[in-house]
Structure formats: structure tokens, C-alpha cells
UniProtKB/TrEMBL annotation:
Residues 6-353 form the Aminotransferase class V domain. Its cofactor is pyridoxal 5'-phosphate. It catalyses: 4-(phosphooxy)-L-threonine + 2-oxoglutarate = (R)-3-hydroxy-2-oxo-4-phosphooxybutanoate + L-glutamate; O-phospho-L-serine + 2-oxoglutarate = 3-phosphooxypyruvate + L-glutamate. This is Phosphoserine aminotransferase. GO terms for cellular component: chloroplast stroma. The lineage of its organism: Eukaryota, Viridiplantae, Streptophyta, Embryophyta, Tracheophyta. Coiled coil: none annotated.
Amino acid sequence: QSQDRVFNFAAGPATLPEIVLKKAESEVYNWRGSGMSVMEMSHRGKEFLSIIQKAESDLRTLLQIPSDYAVLFLQGGATTQFAAIPLNLCTPDDPVDFIVTGSWGDKAFKEATKYCKPSVIWSGKSDKYTKIPSFDDLQQNPHAKYLHICANETIHGVEFKNYPIPNNKESLLIADMSSNFCSKPVDVSKFGLIYAGAQKNVGPSGVTIVIIRKDLIGNAQEITPVMLDYKIHAENNSLYNTPPCYGIYMCGLVFEDLLAQGGLVEVEKKNMKKAQILYDTIDQSNGFYRCPVEKSVRSLMNVPFTLEKSELEAEFIKEAAKEKMVQLKGHRSVGGMRASIYNAMPLAGVEKLVAFMKEFQARHG
Ligand code: PLP
């Protein structure tokens, strides 16, 4: 990567591939001979239509999205989906089940209480969100409309490695994939709906992607705001109102880059390698560094860790920043450190971090 760039371990908005930023830079005044920036284009003009259609088609290729699923490019972040999902899929009396493996799942649950009758059927809170439940032990409500999971908890670093199956034929699996979207292949057909904010793995903030089985669209509660109604967005190909045009364009460039890397099988291999050298460094530090998350469910994307000598944490973060490794402070709710190593974090960034960790330990261990 360029000398003037830092290695940015932020959880989101997060680092983007340099190749994508350079491409955007080269097109910023004049997109492909149009004489305009994508920021200045009509969202109904042929230029922008070609951009959004290509973005959708490349995402479909990447995730092998079946044709009976719609892809929506929305706004309002994943947080808006916490409300939109129950509003679109439930009546106010419908029960739904939540598995809560971290703060985001908890927020999604709390928002849903306004629009349907959710229950938490499993919570990792008493273990400080370091576990994923065994699916055999889940007590699902046989009448639940859906089972909601957060596929990767960004703050706690807990990731589902496989997925629970809802216990009745009509029930749906729904996943917040904000922080591991497009980091590995996913069998979309197992889900009723997948949603993700773009600002971790696939673009800038301001774009939220929803992938929904088409037959689920069209049942929104009457009070649903027009901007939250999937039917409105699906019928208008995400162009009911002015979409986040530039953000969608950037996502499109990221999708092109992921395809050029060989698709999500290759991307996952790189992510596994990065995560492994970082977890190995933590686990082989004789307790100097610790990751509290159960080994089998550690996230490939967000790696939280603490120092045995917690009084050294501020120094660790400060010294790392001096060496151009930034945003390593853990979320304010859990403390410690967190290295987010999304798709766009180069292997060189993780190698530099682990070299620094070893050197820091040699000085302070
Ligand atoms: N879900 C997860 C897993 C997240 O990591 C985040 C944000 O960091 C959110 C939801 C909320 O997303 P947004 O800020 O886009 O509303």
C-alpha cells in the first residue's frame, strides 16, 4: 500500500481497497466521458442506471443470489432495518425469535418489540457475549415468524460458522450480516432476508443492502413508512426516491474488485489467513494478550483482545498509532483493543500489527 496511507483497523466506516479509491479518484470529475461526477448525475439517467444495475448484477454473481431473491440498495443503516424487518414481515401480534450473541442483536431485538412480539430464546450476555449456542438446545417458538441472528457481532467478535434452522417450514432465518457481508461465501437460499450496512466490507456508509426472498415482499403493516416498505423499493428497483448514488457506485467498484480477486472463496481464504496469524499471536503470547471469545466462534473480521497488564493498553494504542496502525481501541462498551480486519485490510497490515505486538511484548512482558 502507498506510503502516505495508514493501516486502519476501524470497525466501520472502515478501510477500503486502495485500488478502488484510486479508480474512484480517476473518475471523480468525469465519469467515463459523461463530463460529470457520479455525485452530480441524475439517479434516473442512463449513466447511473448502468452503475446500479452493474452493482446489483456483480453482487448477485459474488453471492450467487438466486433469482427469486430481490436485492435492494437502501438508506438508514442496518439500524433502520431493525424496524423495517418486523414492519414488513409481521403483524403486531406475531411472535419472532432472537438469538442474541452481542450488542447488535440486542439492539435489533429491542427495536422489534415496538412492532411485533419478539422473544430472546438464547442470550450470551451472562458470558459477556463470547459464545454461540448449540443449535440442539434452542427452544424455538413453533409459531415464530422468523428467527433473527447477527451473523457477526462487530463489538464482541463472535461469528456464526454455520446457521441454525428455523423449526417450522414457514419460519424464516434472518441475518444481520453488516460486519461479515461478502467476507466469505454464503448460501443465500437458507435465509428469508439478509441485511448489511455497507461501511465495513463493501463501501462507504450511507448504503444498506437488503437481500430478500421475493414472496415475502408486500405484507407491510399499514403504519409502515413508505421509505421502509420493501414493496415500494422492490417495485422501483431501489429508485423510489433519490438513492445514495455515490455510495452505490463505490459499492459497485468494490464488488468488481472482489470478483477480480477470484470471488468470495478466494476472499475467504485471505481472511482466514489474516485472522489466523493474529489469533495465533494472541494465543501464543503466554497470556500477555488475551482474546475472550470461544475459539470455535472467533470472528474472521473483528478481533477483540486485552492486555494482561491492562494499564499498558493506552500505551499500546498510542505506540501503534505512531507506527501508522490506527483505530485499535476496543469499543467503549467492552474496552481493551479491537483489530477489525475486513476484506480490504491487506495481509501486510496484519503482519505489521503482529510484529508490533511481539515487539511490544518483548519490551513489557
Ligand atoms: N449491525 C452490526 C452487526 C453492526 O456492526 C452495526 C454497526 O456498526 C450495525 C448493525 C448498525 O449499523 P448502522 O450504523 O449502519 O445503522
